[in-house]
Hints:
By secondary structure, this protein is mainly beta. The chain has helices spanning 202-209, 234-250, 265-273, 354-357; strands at 17-18, 29-34, 41-47, 56-62, 71-72, 77-79, 90-96, 102-108, 119-128, 133-136, 141-144, 153-156, 159-163, 185-189, 193-196, 258-261, 295-296, 301-302, 329-335, 347-348, 361-364, 381-383, 392-393, 397-400. The longest helix is centred in the middle third of the chain and has 17 residues, at 234-250.
Amino acid sequence: MNGTPMNKFLVPLCLVTLSTAAAAQTGRTMNLLAPAVLGHTAIFSMSHPVAAAGNIYALLFSPPFAGTAPVVVPGLLVIGVARIDQTNFFAPYAGVLNGSGSVSHSLAVPNFAGFLGNAWDLQSVDLDVAATRLYLADNDLPLSISGAIPTDMVPIAAGTFQMGSPVTPLGVAPYYNQASAQPVHQVTITRPFWMGKYEVTQAEYQAVMSSNPSYFQGAAYPNSPTRPVEQVSWNYAMAYCTALTTREAAAGRLPSGYQYRLPTEAEWEYCCRAGTTTEFHYGPTLVCGQANFGYIYHTNSVCGSTQTAVVGVYAPNAWGLHDMHGNVWEWCLDAWNGTANYPAYPVTDPFVPGSVSGPIRVLRGGGWRNVSYGCRSAYRDGVNPGYGDYNLGFRVVLASVLVP
């Protein structure tokens, strides 16, 4: 939603005086959907009661403000407290609350180093004209501009997709579909994130962890630093993400509330499909030369793959992500019960922590020595988090914090 000129109702707010009245909860909540990062777009929203539809609202920015302050506006009953600096604020966005219960705005952050570290507090305010009541949100959003995201991370917008595969009968060539990949169901990803354009390479892993467990390294395997790291367990992949998060936070490049982590299973399939509904992001078939894998069931042909390939050799999907089919299996954050089917109803931001389904962790995408059906967008597998072999690696996302 684009900002509109300020409404006259905001003028009295500049004349507020402090009051000792107790703060009431207003049911307005500020939400950060995408962080403020140099060269990217921050997205924030305010959730509000549906009954507030028609109220005039504004979003108020101020320099960082500690604590809260009750306010009085002559002629209005003020509900809530100020969480921004009442003496030094601006209001670039205003409008009318809708009946959906949420309004959102975006803020394009120029890729200018001088903005790095700039910070504000953001709070909403809305007016019920008929009732002469002014409401302030129950929380504020501290916004601080962080450093530019690495160029090998692809921005992924929030959205909705169909997760799973409809293929029947199950267990039949060429797809060998699984019951655990059904039913196809609607999944909504509510928060934008970034995903690695490539699988984590040996050089990247070495730089963060000071080690390289890969089998395909050294003079016998040309360009091995730019091949995916493999023989990495889920535990070591998680350790890498933790170390990378710590490093980037120390350098001022980590957005608040975000971390480098493994993708959830839903995030992974959403990114692999890149808007497609076919068994592969290329279409209904996967053929030799489109990805690094071993055997194609569509033609019963051997593709000749004997080792990992340099990341990015094969064409990307529509979202610019390489090797989502083949090369190495990729760890996901979720735990998985391989006997359980998907839910038959729409879900939002699904994630299964280990405390729910046990120790097995999800693998996606297939590897260099696998058959075509194992590389499908919807194909699911899983192993113990301590396991690792030369067909198994990972990629990272920069996304909202989740606890595995």
